[in-house]
Amino acid sequence: MSPPLGFWDNFCLVLSQSQDKTEIAHQEVEIPEEANKYLHNVFLFKFNKRFTKDPENPEPAWRVVPREINLDSVFSIKEQRTVMADNTISYKNRIFQILPDKYRISFAKAKVEVEKRLDESIHIKYKDHPEPISG
């Protein structure tokens, strides 16, 4: 049994089986710019008309993200580090010093989570509390 086809697989399959490929040849579309123009101005309209259907339930399926969920943190690359005796960690050939805060004076030997976010910023967390860092 073959795996289910994704959108682009279906799209290419439909294009290969459709009359549109002969239309493309008939219109002497030879360069990618002309093919893209045909694709956006003609083919996609026909494709959408053929395969679009109204949803069974017109109510939107998305939900509002709760305030307590930080999407910047959710969509980050996370790695665990152990804090060294001098309250520093090494991450990607950089040394970060973890400053004391109201929870702990020293973070030596503590396990922390380093987050590299989509904006390339680095955040270090200890037990779900964001910790101030300097690099």
Total E-strand runs: 7
What gap, in angstroms, lies between the N and C termini? Answer: 53 Å
Strand order of the largest sheet: 1-4-5-6
Shape: elongated
What about the largest sheet? 4 strands, antiparallel
Strand content: 15-25%
Order of helices and strands: HHHHEEEEEEE
Structural class: alpha+beta
Explain what you see:
There is one protein chain. This protein is of the alpha+beta class and 135 residues long. The chain folds into two domains: 7-51, no CATH class; 71-134, no CATH class. Helices cover 31% and strands 23% of the residues. It contains four helices and seven strands; from the N terminus they run ααααβββββββ. The chain has helices spanning 7-17, 20-26, 32-51, 71-74; strands at 77-82, 88-91, 94-98, 111-116, 122-126, 129-131, 133-134. The strands form two sheets. The protein has a four-stranded antiparallel sheet, with no helix packed on it. The radius of gyration is 26 Å and the shape is elongated. The N and C termini lie far apart (53 Å).
Layout of helices and strands:
Layout (H helix, E strand, L loop, with lengths): L6 H11 L2 H7 L5 H20 L19 H4 L2 E6 L5 E4 L2 E5 L12 E6 L5 E5 L2 E3 L1 E2 L1
Antiparallel strand pairs: 1-4, 2-3, 3-7, 4-5, 5-6
Give the structure's gist in a few sentences.
The protein has 135 residues and is α+β, with helices and mostly antiparallel strands. It has helices spanning 7-17, 20-26, 32-51, 71-74, and strands spanning 77-82, 88-91, 94-98, 111-116, 122-126, 129-131, 133-134. Strand 2 and strand 3 form a beta hairpin.
